[in-house]
Amino acid sequence: MKRKREGEGRATVTGTGSSHDGGSERGYEVFLSFRGPDTRLTMADCLYNDLICAGIRVFKDNEELRFGEEIEGGLLQAINDSRIYILIFSKDYASSKWCLRELARIVELKRANAEKVILPVFYDVDVDDVKLKTKLYRKALRKHKSDYGKDLVKKWKKTLRKVARIRGRKLKDHGYYLLLH
Question: Which fold has domain 2-125+166-178?
Answer without folding.
Answer: Rossmann fold (3.40.50)
